[in-house]
Design a protein that fits this description.
By secondary structure, this protein is α+β, with helices and mostly antiparallel strands. The protein has three helices and ten strands. The protein has two domains: about 30 residues; about 120 residues, Pleckstrin-homology domain (PH domain)/Phosphotyrosine-binding domain (PTB) (PH-domain like), CATH 2.30.29.30.
Length: about 160
């Protein structure tokens, strides 16, 4: 076998692999289309209790932490601005419509890993909320703020207290 044939075979395998990855991601997006339509896009009129910068990492199914929710704008990692209101947690990702995680049942805690991301012990804030009738977990890396204060405030809002 010549180098040209071997090189052509490698390129062909790479193109097939990339095509299969794209096909799989599009199927995942189609599977979560109902969840994308269920996202709350309204911005609360109330004053934010907490307003901080964060890095959005991922949203996964609560009972299957390796199953990423592919619903825009929650599909990809990005910088984000988190604003906690009595109505819920407003997540603003630049270039995307804001998303409100409803206050009812909102829970928060610490995490060390999520799909495709591992950090130091308890380096992520995990927010559990309801999306289209199912529990999902969203993960954030807090920038220049107190993660503990955010977690405490999220717990109070989720319980319906201030």
């Amino acid at each position: 076998m010549t180098q040209e044939i071997a090189g052509s075979m490698m390129i062909a395998l790479m193109v097939v692999g990339l095509g299969l990855a794209l096909w799989g991601w599009r199927r995942r997006g189609a599977r979560y289309r109902g969840e994308a339509e269920a996202l709350i896009r309204d911005i609360p009129a109330s004053v934010a209790l907490v307003d901080i910068d964060a890095l959005y990492v991922a949203t996964t199914e609560a009972l299957d932490p390796l199953q990423r929710i592919a619903a825009d704008p929650l599909s990809y990692r990005a910088k984000a601005r988190l604003a906690l209101h009595p109505e819920g947690l407003l997540v603003r990702i630049p270039g995307e419509d804001p998303v409100l995680f409803p206050a009812e049942g909102l829970e928060a805690g610490r995490a060390t890993w999520t799909i495709d991301r591992v950090v130091e012990t308890d380096g992520l804030v995990m927010v559990r909320w309801r999306l289209a009738g199912r529990d999902v977990d969203s993960y954030f890396r807090i920038v220049d703020a107190s993660a503990t204060a955010l977690i405490d405030a999220l717990g109070r809002v989720g319980r319906g207290t201030k």
